[in-house]
Amino acid sequence: MIDVEDLSVHFGGVVSLDQMTIQFPAGTCGLIGPNGAGKTTFFNVLSGFVRPRSGRVDAMGQDLLALPSFRRARWGLRRTFQTEQAIEKLTVFENVATVYEHSDTRGKAGRTAAVDEALDFVGLTDVAQQTVRTLGAKERRFIEVARAVVGQPRLILLDEPAAGLPDEETALLGRIIRSIPDRVGATVILVDHDMSLVQACCDWTAVLDFGRLLASGPTQEVLRDTKVMKAYLGTEEVA
Amino acid sequence: MTAIATPAEANLAEPRPKVLARVTSNRMFEPIAVVAVLLIGLFVIPGFFDAFWIANFTQMAVFSIVAASAGLLYGRVGLVSLGQVASYGIGCWVTMRLAFATSWPFPVLLIIGGVVAAVIGVLIGLPALRVSGLYLALVTLMLAAGMEIVLGATKFPNGGTGFNGVVKTLSDIRPTRRPSWAITDVAYYRFIVVGAFAMFMLASFVLSRKPGRAWASIRQSEAAALAAGIDVTRYKLWAFALAAFMAGVAGGLYAGTVPKGMSIDAFNRQSAIFLIAVVIMGGIYSLWGGLLGAFFATCLLKFLTQNVVGHQFWTRFSLSLFGFGLLANLIQNTRAAEKKGIEA
Predict the structure, then answer these.
(1) Helix (H) or strand (E) holding A156
(2) What is the ipTM of this complex?
(3) Distances (CA, A) of B87 to B69, B124, B201
(4) Domain for residue B330, yes or no?
(5) Are A173 and A193 in contact (CB under 8 A)?
(6) A47, B220: Cβ pair inside 8 Å?
(7) How many domains does chain B have?
(8) CA–CA distances in Å: residue A157 to residues A9, A83, A160, B178
(9) With 0-12 CB in 10 A as exposed, 13-18 as middle and 19+ as buried, what is A34?
(10) Does residue A239 sit within a domain?
(11) In a domain, B139, yes or no
(12) Per CB distance under 8 Å, which residues of A are interface residues toward B?
């Protein structure tokens, strides 16, 4: 359970998060909202890149904001970025191993097994020894997911993980994302504009608008909510 | 971002010419090339060249270490440091003074020189890490300028006895002692080649391990590195320490090459800029770039000034060319870094 209380972020005069209060249950949670709603800012606060003006984040009993940003990975926080950040110069294996060796407490002994397991999970075992530079968009996106699940993650933030992928690959990624909580036991928060992906992955979804929580609950109910339709799409039908 | 690869993107993935690719992508290519270059350095060059060229190859071997250290910082970690000549100077100074003051074996002096340079490198790196890109280049350039002033004020190029021996007349200046088993120019040249080899191996070893992967991550995106749990500050300091150590050892090796009255020219601001320009020309990602850059800066330049056109022309021409390359590269990288900032 991720308990967010009164979280506010201001950039100069712009209020990006406005006393956001929300509780994410275990499992795969969706976080949606129009552009500029504060979704990525929220992720940046959790990652430690943005310092909130006020508020508290209690993640499974840990005051997340009290940790230096790089220490949060060791606690079990993982994230992907809107623009994928697989490390070009390293091989797929090294990419995943880098996250493991800086975030896992079990040390070197379990490294190969953990990395192989993560690569197997996303189906990249065959290209493990290839340099990322030689790979395409799909593999890079999947590497990011492997980096997120390797080791002992507890909270995984996925920021538009399917951006730039064609439909069938998005569907495959959706199935992988959906199975993360069962497979590695982490809570997943998925930000995406692709409603079919959110519906496919998330039983529970929250909607942000202008930095405030607009609605939250079971995905189907939330998407039918009239407030959400109005604010989010301005139409009567969602998905 | 486009969803489907366009023809333009498909063209980018086209492989290099096949024969070359097959040779260079072979797993044994690099080790064989390294051994070949080492053997050429140790045996072929002393066998074919006269004293004048041995002196040039000696400079090249020393310079290749400094160039590789600056290339490592820039190419592998993304830190543009113009302070490597300062580390080079510190290593040279420490080794030289210890050589006059003690009778310790020369390799020990080199390591002490390297360690002192590394410690100072880290101390300077601490405040410098608050800035990046062009600004880091400026801060470290100031460092190089400061070093130049200290060297000048302390009458550095001096061969008196003891720790701070200063001689009054130029004719009293003695050369820094060499190891007893490498007294002749050729023997000392070989000693430097072995020293350079050791430094390249050290760098290559560290690059293939955890720090190397952390640096690759930092170079690509500091935000992603932090998210992966990498202590970015610590690994940047680690890089400063390793690079300063390499440059410090190179400085110590350099101390033994100067027969009489060392000049501080090797450690001044112009050298700092020249070094980074040479490094960029040689190629910053591969350690081979250090060797190539050093070749441009020493042997090739010497060959041109000796054989083609007058000395002044080539020195100025190369400086302008290197300077142009440096500026172009810095501007491009600063833009790339700005684009890469964390999206809010």
Answers:
(1) strand A155-159
(2) 0.90
(3) 10, 10, 19
(4) no
(5) no
(6) no
(7) 1
(8) 18, 14, 10, 59
(9) middle
(10) no
(11) yes
(12) 11, 16, 40-41, 44, 47-50, 69-74, 77-79, 81-83, 85, 87-90, 94, 97-99, 101-103, 134, 136-137, 147, 163-166
The answer to whether the Cβ–Cβ distance between A70 and B230 falls below 8 Å is: yes
Q: Beta A2-11 vs A54-59: how paired, if at all?
A: antiparallel
Q: Are B81 and B240 in contact (CB under 8 A)?
A: yes
Per-residue pLDDT of chain B in tens (344 residues, 90 and over written 9)? 334 444 444 444 444 556 777 777 777 888 888 888 888 888 888 888 888 888 889 999 999 999 999 999 988 998 888 889 899 999 998 898 888 888 899 999 999 999 999 999 898 888 778 777 778 888 888 888 888 888 778 776 666 666 666 666 666 677 778 888 878 888 999 999 999 999 999 999 999 999 999 999 999 889 999 999 999 999 999 999 999 999 999 999 998 887 666 677 778 777 887 888 888 878 778 888 888 888 888 888 777 777 766 667 777 777 777 777 777 777 776 666 665 544 33
- Is residue B332 situated within a structural domain? no
The span from the CA of A155 to the CA of A64, in Å, is 11
Domain that includes residue A149, residue range: 2-233
Contact A90 B224 (CB under 8 A): no
CB contact under 8 A, B228 and A44: no
Q: Who contacts B26 (Cβ-Cβ below 8 Å, separation ≥6)?
A: none
What's the CATH number where A64 sits?
3.40.50.300
pTM of structure: 0.86
Flag whether A211 is in a domain. yes
Q: For chain A, what is the total number of helices (H) and then of strands (E)?
A: 9, 10
> Does residue A101 form part of some domain?
yes
Residue A35 lies in a domain: yes
Q: Where are the alpha helices (DSSP H) in A124-194?
A: 137-149, 167-184
Range of the domain at B91: 68-298
d(C-alpha A46, C-alpha B11), whole Å:
40
Q: What DSSP assignment string belongs to B96-122?
A: HHHHHH----HHHHHHHHHHHHHHHHH
Q: Does B336 touch chain A (CB under 8 A)?
A: no
The token pair at A108 is: 């070197």
Assigned domain for B124 exists: yes
Strand partners, A216: A206
Using the CB atoms, write b or e for B23-49: b if 16+ within 10 Å.
eeeeeeeeeeebeeebeebeeebbeeb
Amino acid identity of residue A23, one-letter, is Q
Domain count, chain A: 1
| DSSP type of residue B268 | S
